[in-house]
Amino acid sequence: MDNQQQQTLLSVRDLRVRFRQEDGGRFEALKGVSFDIPAHRTVALVGESGSGKSVTSMAVMRLLPAQGTEIDPGSQIVFEGRDLLAMGAGELRRLRGKDIAMIFQEPMSSLNPVYTVGEQIVETLTLHAGLSRRAAWRRAVELLSEVGLPEPEKRVKAYPHELSGGQQQRVMIAIAIACEPKLLIADEPTTALDVTIQKQILQLIADLQKKHGMSVLFITHDLGVVGEFADEVIVMRHGEIREQGTVRQIFENPQDAYTKALLSCRPHLDRRPERLAVIDDFMQPGGYAEPPERARGYAADDEIILDVQGLCKSFDIREGLFGKRQFHAVKDVSFKLARGKTLGIVGESGSGKTTVGLTLVRLHQATGGRALFHGQDLIGMSARDFHAYKRRIQIIFQNPYASLNPRFNVERILTEPMQLHGIGANGGERRRLAQELLDKVGLPSTALAKYPHEFSGGQRQRIAIARCLTLKPEVLICDESVSALDVSVQAQVLNLLQDLQDEFKLSYLFISHDLAVVKHISDQVMVMNKGQVVEQADSDVIYRAPRDSYTQKLLGSIPQGWSAAAMPA
């Protein structure tokens, strides 16, 4: 490392942050956090939800709410010799966006929906770089080209809702680098993106870091993502730093049990243990012993309970004032699902995988094809006849908070489907069944009286699973049901789904863009692109020897973590 690289750009010392709570108490979010960010280097800040990593980044940007936030007087955040915590409002405004910039996790909530993306880039350039509007517009087009947005002269006039999620994130990056900041903070910038788009964004940030000589503070909950491009890693838990070091040190020889747990919780492509490791496995005395591997795949004598043949779904899209055209979201999709087995459906956003699931439960009306469930066509039967099948094929959505009624407590959430379908002789019996289901999904019976907002994301997903189980289904459609969870919570939910499948012989359609998760849980994998099936086979076959070029592209985009071969000399 040369002297330029060794120079410290940002130094955080003994950062302590407390939030005042409604009951008058104090919650200590950061407990003496200290670290350095060298010039021209990428530092990854890693941890689960609640670890304090985003609070750290917001403290650096001085974006924590003034009301109810307490920062210890002994804390220091020094940027190029200046203490950010002692700066006045005017000096901070000049610094933010010019010398320190930030990319937020959700671009759609960060971009202003009533202004074009070009206007939002121009505002940054005129405010911080002093450019005229004409010069700023020219520079905005150049920036959109630099971040890889197609047709930048056209896209500069687009509104945020007219762009895809990956394109919106590229616009956020263009705004962030507009004034060539010395420090770029990226807060979970790829969490909600497809694996191919994620790889593009990560490579883009890495390329821009080298081109502009920036330092990058990259915040994520996934160690596997940072292994390919970060220089140093800081691991946080419960507001404290558990371990920090170079990528080589953290990946090759982690010292802290929590770091080891984070590295092991995520499904791996080269092995498939019967159960995934969870955090508690590593925090107990005696360490962790990995269980034997689980065999996957379809057998010739498997009982097929769902046979989908030529499924099609089209939508009418308006064009102009009176015109419309048909968009074919699903085109001639066929597959078989066996009892007690899992079919993984993968593909990028817009591939049609979610539309397949929604059409099977008739939340969308199919425009062609058949779906034979025990020989009966779910697509062709009347709504009245289908009512009897609703309880036998259920769906778990990606966002449990959006799918659970916030005005219902857990008891009502679980007992209402039983009441509608005539399960349980009376309220007392339905309550008893609800308690048994909570026990199945690992929640205490005291949860019955609580409301969805009182639970974490992983706990809410468990409640959503319990609600599906109230009707004793044979098929569960899991639509991105673990993609928004921390890796450790994700491991818990995946283990739960596997336990339920083993106990009740449930069949799963597992829809996801996370290919490592799909490899872990699926017996067969179906790859979709632009509404069509491009490849389908046993999961081990697909991952070992993909035939289709699109499948090869997807698998080539999976974060591989750190390897010695990838490290610079």
Describe the protein:
Helix 5 crosses helix 6 (133-146). This protein has 23 helices and 21 strands. It has 569 residues and is an alpha/beta fold.
Features:
23 helices; globular; disordered C terminus; 569 residues; 6-stranded mixed sheet; alpha/beta
Proportion of helical residues: 25-40%
Assess the beta-strand content as a share of residues: 15-25%
The major pleated sheet works out as: 6 strands, mixed
Query: Given the C-alpha coordinates, what overall shape results?
Result: globular
By helix and strand content, what is the structural category? alpha/beta
Distance between the termini: 10 Å
Task: Write out the strand line-up for the largest beta sheet, numbering strands in chain order.
Answer: 7-8-9-3-10-11
Structural topology:
Elements: H1 3-6, E1 8-20, E2 26-38, E3 42-46, H2 53-60, E4 69-71, E5 76-79, E6 82-83, H3 89-95, E7 100-103, H4 107-110, H5 117-129, H6 133-146, H7 152-155, H8 165-177, E8 183-187, H9 195-212, E9 215-220, H10 223-226, E10 232-237, E11 240-246, H11 247-252, H12 257-265, H13 279-283, E12 304-319, E13 323-338, E14 342-346, H14 353-360, E15 368-373, E16 376-377, H15 383-390, E17 393-396, H16 400-403, H17 410-420, H18 427-440, H19 457-469, E18 475-479, H20 487-504, E19 507-512, H21 515-521, E20 524-529, E21 532-538, H22 539-544, H23 549-556
Parallel strand pairs: 3-9, 3-10, 7-8, 8-9, 14-19, 14-20, 17-18, 18-19
Antiparallel strand pairs: 1-2, 1-4, 1-5, 5-6, 10-11, 12-13, 12-15, 15-16, 20-21
Helix pairs in contact: 5-6, 6-8, 8-9, 17-18, 18-19
